[in-house]
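Morning!

This is the sequence you dropped in the shared folder:
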Amino acid sequence: MSQVATPYADTRDMYTVHIMFRREYALLPGLVRSVPPKDTDRAQTIAAHIEMVNLILHHHHSGEDAVLWPRLLTRAPKEIDPVVHLVEGHHRGIENLLAESDVLLSAWTEAASSEDGESLAQTLQRLAVALYEHMGLEERLILPVVERHIFATEWHEMVEHAAAGIPQQIAPVVAGMVMYEGGLHAVPEEMRTVLGEVAPQAYAAHCERVHGTRTPPRAADVIVGTPFVGVPGFLS
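The structure's back. C-alpha cells below.
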C-alpha cells in the first residue's frame, strides 16, 4: 500500500538539533575551566566558540518565537496554551542567561582571570540546565502537537528564519556540528552534495582547535548530572 504524504511538519530534525545543543552546552563549562589563568589567546579561542554556539541558539529560538508559538496558540487545543506560554517564558530566561554570558565573556577574555572564568563557567552551567529542561519539555509536550497543527511549509519557514541569521562563513562548521551526531540526513537534501564532505571536515578542524580532538564527546556522554559536565577530562 502506498503511503500518503502528510502536509504537516516532520519534526525529526528538531530532535537532532537538540542533541547538538545538549552536547555543545554541556561541554562549555569545562572548556572555560580548562583555560590557564592569563592565557588570553586560549580564552579568545574558547570565547569565539561560545559566541558562535550562543548565536546559533539565539536564532534557533527566534525562529520558534516568530513562526511556531503564534500558530500553535491560534490552532492547537486551548489546553496546550499554558505549555506554549511556559516555553515562551523559557526562551526569555535563556536569553537573559545568554546576555549574562556575553558580559562575562567580555571580562574573561580581557585578562583570562580564574575568578572571571569561574563566574562564566557557572553561568554556562545554569544555561545548560535551563536548556535541558526546555528541550525536554518541547520534545514531550510541544512537538507531538506541532505534528498535528503546523504545516510542513510553515516548519520550513521557521528553519529558514533561523538559518538566515547564521553568517555564511561559519555555515559549514554549523552544519558539521549538527551532522556530527545526526549524519548526512541532518541537512536539507538539496545541500547534501555540497556539505556532505565539507561540513564534517570543517567541524572536525574546529573541534581540534577548541577541544584538542577532532572527535569530542557525544551528547549521551555529557548529559547534565554526570561528572563529565563541567569537567574537561577529555583534554587531559
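Headline: The chain has seven helices and no strands.

More detail when I'm at my desk.
O.
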